[in-house]
Amino acid sequence: MASDLVQRRVPDYRVPTLFPLRPGEVAFAHGPASVESFHAIGDGSRPSSSTFLATSGRFGLALGVATYAIANANRQAQATADATPMWRPAFGGSIVVTSQGFYLLDHAGKLDWDWDSIDLMQVVGFSCLVMQGQSATGPVTWRITSDWAELVFVMWAMARHPRHPQLLDRSWIPARWPEWAEQQGYRPFLPEHPALEG
Question: Domain span at residue 71?
Answer without folding.
Answer: 41-84
